[in-house]
């Protein structure tokens, strides 16, 4: 169950970032920046522990094209942070759920004990 809860935000992020190239170009960003962002975003998700995707960086282009390099760095940082944040939220939600279940169990046990002692 816990791994399933972690998978939900990860899949949402993958869907959100999947068309980042087209979105950025449509918003007026230069093609090299959009391509770099797209590559960096996938790399950032992978660095944060995503199951799918992988590290992608056109190193010759990164070294020669400042817009690609800036896009790659921005995409990497943003998507890595989003993935880490989503994982942290899922972990906290699971932790809170476990705590709530324990509290409910303890309350039920205390109520049963109180009713038995009447």
TrEMBL record:
Cleavable signal peptide: 1-21
Region (Disordered): 85-118
Protein name per Swiss-Prot or TrEMBL: Lipoprotein
Organism: Pseudomonas turukhanskensis
Sorted UniProt keywords: Signal
Compositionally skewed regions (Basic and acidic residues) per UniProt: 90-108
Lineage: Bacteria, Pseudomonadati, Pseudomonadota, Gammaproteobacteria, Pseudomonadales
Tagged with keyword Signal: yes
Source organism superkingdom: Bacteria
């Amino acid at each position: 169950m816990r791994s399933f809860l972690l998978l939900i935000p990860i899949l949402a992020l993958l869907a959100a970032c999947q068309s980042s190239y087209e979105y950025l170009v449509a918003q007026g960003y230069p093609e090299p920046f959009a391509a770099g962002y797209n590559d960096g975003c996938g790399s950032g998700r992978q660095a944060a522990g995503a199951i799918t995707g992988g590290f992608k960086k056109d190193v010759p282009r990164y070294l020669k094209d400042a817009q690609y390099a800036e896009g790659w760095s921005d995409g990497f940082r943003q998507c890595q942070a989003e993935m880490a944040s989503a994982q942290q939220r899922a972990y906290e939600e699971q932790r809170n759920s476990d705590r709530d279940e324990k509290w409910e169990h303890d309350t039920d046990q205390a109520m049963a004990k109180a009713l038995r002692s009447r």
